[in-house]
Write a structure and sequence with these properties.
The chain has 111 residues and is α+β, with helices and mostly antiparallel strands. It contains two helices and seven strands; from the N terminus they run H-E-E-E-E-E-E-E-H. The radius of gyration is 13 Å and the shape is globular. The strands form two sheets. A four-stranded mixed beta sheet has the order 1-7-6-5, with helices on both faces. A three-stranded antiparallel beta sheet has the order 2-3-4, with helices on one face. It starts with 13 loop residues before the first helix and ends in a 5-residue tail after the last helix. The chain is 20% helix and 31% strand.
């Protein structure tokens, strides 16, 4: 999975980037389902790998605290529900989230 370099622009913090994405319509905070095969929005709607497109990847590095390495994924669905999925970065990343996103990238994009 290709990652963008750490951000060095006005949206360089995690919270600022979330606000920027929300302004662009990415209003849902997705969670990975317990089976790792779907993401769920705040209303409990599920989206599988064929329903999701990965539109952006934003990394955040706190050089003073490795536990604060984060990555934010901007996702859209084929039903128009857009949002983001947050994960740790590097040794703090979720293998389940990585597997899900790799499968998304290997599918034909829904849009």
């Amino acid at each position: 999975m290709k990652l963008d370099p750490p951000r060095h622009d006005p949206y360089s913090t995690l919270e600022q980037t979330k606000r920027m994405l929300e302004e662009k319509g990415y209003t849902n905070c997705f969670q990975l389902s317990s089976d790792g095969d779907h993401i769920e929005d705040k209303n409990g709607h599920q989206f599988g790998i064929n329903d999701v497109a990965l539109n952006g990847t934003y990394r955040f590095v706190n050089k003073d605290n490795e536990a604060e390495y984060e990555v934010l994924y901007a996702l859209s669905t084929n039903t128009g529900v857009d949002g983001f999925l947050q994960d740790g970065f590097g040794k703090n990343s979720s293998e389940s989230i990585n597997n899900f996103l790799q499968r998304v990238e290997n599918q034909e994009q829904p849009r």
